[in-house]
Task: inverse folding
């Protein structure tokens, strides 16, 4: 029994992002404030109140900035709701897309009628709590690991080595996303950027450049999912979940030295496409998890938008909202900021915005079906360790 | 509120019952990993069971210490508060070395200018004693 088309997103909420708290004593908000704010916005959007979430589902997304094992209960307590089902989603930047699929299964199984998925993070102020995987703590950190930059740099250089990946190819992706950000009132980085700006930006962990990297931020995001039947009576146009796939701890080759240029998204995507009964060619847009530019490129390859290492495709394709494959139509996380593991939800929310036809200056004309992805973690010797794909449509036929 | 600017301490691994044989061998100048007696595959990082077949009968096996650079990065800028201890080493090289016996090893390439490092470079292990108990296996170009 597939979950294809049986649930729909009926409300979304997104607080503005900020970078407050970088300076000592600077006034800033807390994670509970962002959680409350984002949940309220999503409920208002759906025409619901907190009372509608008593006896329903709550998907609480763990943030690296506030780790405690009872987080779903604390989230419910902060929001003043009494869930009948708590989901604790902890697979990093993949967690919100992962939660979407799991929530749909719970609704279809009849456990609950609706699920609120909410995430918030304050990257600059809360402690990281030393919450690193043991492999990373014992066998990477002592060698001078520089956050995610150094891990992605290893993957990026191997990709460039194997496929002759060019800065023009990567730059086309980066410049398009910034262009979209300039059309999105909620984006953070809106100043126009040229290909030359990208190619000459400072090397931070060679070959990773400053303009390859996502920017940490504070903020909160939420969505509400319900059954397709119930969604028909809700105020906003339903956006149906048509396909879902997840692949965690992927390995392509022996587990101790897998091919680092292939991502688990290849299998997660294949499952999502098969469930939805569509192919990459049917996508009106792709909102790709974007911690780094090269990771967007690798996902497009592994999802089947082009052959592996087709540099010409990346150099010459129009990825704008008017182009052949619109990507990152709101500017993506790189231009809107990443509130830790909450950041990945931006791709669900932008997909809903496009499929409702609310994209204003960046609306993909006639958008009917698109995909969004989530990625999380950087396990030892590999690229991203958790991957999830959701295919969304405004038509569940 | 000004924070006292002390010299940050280098983060060291925590020696556990599982990882102790690895660190003991490194202290003695040997690179070892767990080999599965059932399927013969190596497992890395240390695990209670073989990651390929699930076998729980593992023995620590000495490796050649030779490998090839699979990929690398040159660290040019600090990222994250925890990494401040390495600021004075910049620029330095982090690499994944694929060992002759198979497993990929996260390490530094030392003993040559950072600009000389390239993918495919043949390297061999050297041990950097960073504390009384810990010698970090690092790699230098093979002569
Ligand atoms: Zn085995």
Result:
């Amino acid at each position: 029994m597939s979950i294809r088309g049986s649930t729909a997103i009926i409300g979304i909420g997104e607080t503005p992002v900020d970078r407050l708290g970088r300076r000592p004593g600077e006034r800033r908000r807390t994670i509970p404030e962002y959680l409350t704010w984002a949940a309220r916005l999503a409920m208002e959007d759906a025409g619901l109140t907190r009372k509608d979430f008593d006896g329903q589902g709550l998907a609480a997304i763990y943030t690296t900035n506030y780790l405690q094992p009872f987080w779903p209960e604390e989230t419910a307590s902060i929001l003043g709701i009494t869930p009948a089902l708590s989901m604790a989603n902890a697979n990093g930047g993949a967690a919100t897309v992962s939660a979407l699929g799991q929530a749909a299964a719970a609704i279809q199984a009849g456990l609950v009628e609706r699920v609120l998925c909410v995430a918030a993070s304050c990257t600059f102020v809360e402690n990281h709590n030393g919450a690193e995987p043991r492999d990373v703590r014992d066998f990477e950190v002592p060698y001078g690991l520089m956050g995610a930059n150094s891990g992605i740099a290893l993957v990026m250089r191997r990709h460039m080595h194997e496929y002759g990946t060019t800065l023009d190819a990567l730059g086309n992706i980066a410049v398009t996303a910034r262009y979209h950000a300039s059309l999105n009132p909620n984006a953070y980085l809106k100043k126009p950027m040229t290909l030359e700006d990208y190619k000459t930006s400072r090397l931070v962990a060679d070959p990773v450049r400053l303009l390859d990297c996502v920017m940490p931020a504070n903020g909160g995001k939420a969505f509400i999912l319900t059954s397709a039947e119930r969604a028909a009576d809700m105020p906003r146009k339903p956006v149906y979940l048509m396909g879902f796939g997840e692949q965690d701890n992927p390995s392509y080759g022996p587990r101790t030295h897998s091919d680092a240029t292939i991502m688990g998204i290849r299998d997660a995507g294949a499952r999502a496409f098969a469930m939805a009964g569509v192919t990459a060619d049917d996508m009106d847009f792709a909102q790709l998890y974007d911690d780094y530019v090269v990771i967007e490129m690798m996902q497009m390859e592994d999802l089947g938008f082009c052959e592996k290492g087709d540099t010409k495709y990346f150099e010459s394709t129009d990825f704008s909202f008017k182009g052949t494959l619109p990507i990152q139509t709101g500017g993506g996380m790189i231009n809107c900021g990443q509130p830790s593991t909450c950041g990945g939800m931006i791709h669900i929310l932008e997909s809903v915005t496009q499929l409702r036809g609310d994209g204003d200056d960046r609306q993909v004309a006639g958008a009917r079906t698109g995909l969004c992805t989530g990625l999380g973690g950087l396990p030892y010797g590999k690229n991203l360790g958790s991957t999830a794909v959701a295919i969304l449509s405004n038509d569940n036929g | 509120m000004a924070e006292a600017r002390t010299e940050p301490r280098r983060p060291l691994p925590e020696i556990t019952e599982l990882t102790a044989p690895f660190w003991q061998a490194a202290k003695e100048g040997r690179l070892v990993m767990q080999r599965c007696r059932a399927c013969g595959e190596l497992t890395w990082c240390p695990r209670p069971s073989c990651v390929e077949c699930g076998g729980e009968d593992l023995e620590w096996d000495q490796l050649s210490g030779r490998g090839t650079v699979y990929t690398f990065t040159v660290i040019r800028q600090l990222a994250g508060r925890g990494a401040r201890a390495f600021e004075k080493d910049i620029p330095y090289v982090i690499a994944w070395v694929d060992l002759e016996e198979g497993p990929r090893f996260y390490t530094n390439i030392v003993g040559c200018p950072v600009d000389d490092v390239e993918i495919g470079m043949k390297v061999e292990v050297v041990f950097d004693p960073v504390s009384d108990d810990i010698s970090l296996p690092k790699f230098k170009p093979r002569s």
In short: Residues B 36, 38-39, 41, 50, 52-53, 55 surround zinc ion (CB under 6 Å). Residues 146-213+241-393 of chain A form a domain with the Peroxisomal Thiolase; Chain A, domain 1 fold (CATH 3.40.47.10). Chain A has a mean pLDDT of 95.
